[in-house]
Amino acid sequence: MAPPSGQSSSQPLPAREQALFKKIVKCYEHKQYKVGLKYSKQILSNTKFAEHGETLAMKGLILNCMGKHDDAQDNVKRGLKNDIKSHVCWHVYGLLQRSDKKYDEAIKAYRNALRIDKDNMQILRDLSLLQIQMRDLEGYRDTRYQLLTLRPTQRASWIGYATAYHLLQDYDMALKIVGEFCKTQQPSDYDFEYSELLLYQNMILRESGRLELALEKLEENSAHIFDRVAYLETR
C-alpha cells in the first residue's frame, strides 16, 4: 500500500488535485483500479501536472495490479525520474521490484524512501517483511525496533521485536522483551491474545532448552491459557 503524498514531494499539488490523488490511493487500497485510473487521468490530463511524479507512480502501481506490466514500469520509472525526492515514488518503485521478485532492488528502494520519510510505518513494515523473507535477520531486528519505538503501545510491535531475537536464537533477549510486555498487560477474562502470548513465551523457553522452567511457567499461567489443546500438547 502506498501512502498519500507527503511534504517530501518536490511537486506539491493544489487542493483539488491533492483530493483527487487521495482518491487514487483509496481506489488502489480497495482494488477499484478502473476508478483509480480515471482519477489519475483527471490529474495528468492537465498540462500543469502531466508529469506529476507521484500520480504517475500510483497510476503505474494500479496498472501493475491490472496485469499491464510494461505500462506500469514505464509510468513508475517516469514518476520516479520526475520526483526523485518523493518517498511515495520510491516506495511504489520498491513495490514493483518486489512484484518482479527483485527483492534486493526492492529493499534498496524502500531504504531510499525511508531516507526521505524515516518514520513511515507502512514502508517500515514492507521493509521488515522483505528482510525476513531474505533472512536478513539483523536488518529485520533493527527495523522491528524502529517500529516498536514508533508504536510502543501496540502488541504487534513488541511481538515483532521479540520474534527478531527469537529467530536470531538470542532466547534470553526474546524472553526479556516478551516479559516486559507481559508486565504492561492486565488480562481480561477470556483474553485470547494474552493466552497466545503466554504460549509463545513458553515456546521460546522450550526452544532454549529450559524445559523444566517451561513446564513450571505453563502450570503457573494455566488459568490464562484458553487453547486447551495447545496447553495439553505442550505439557
UniProtKB/TrEMBL annotation:
A single cellular component GO annotation: NatA complex
SMART domains the UniProt entry points to: TPR
Keywords: Repeat, TPR repeat
TPR repeat positions: 87-120
InterPro entries in the cross-refs: NatA_aux_su (IPR021183), TPR-like_helical_dom_sf (IPR011990), TPR_2 (IPR013105), TPR_rpt (IPR019734)
PANTHER family: N(ALPHA)-ACETYLTRANSFERASE 15_16, ISOFORM A, N-TERMINAL ACETYLTRANSFERASE-RELATED
Protein name: N-alpha-acetyltransferase 16, NatA auxiliary subunit
Origin species: Plectus sambesii
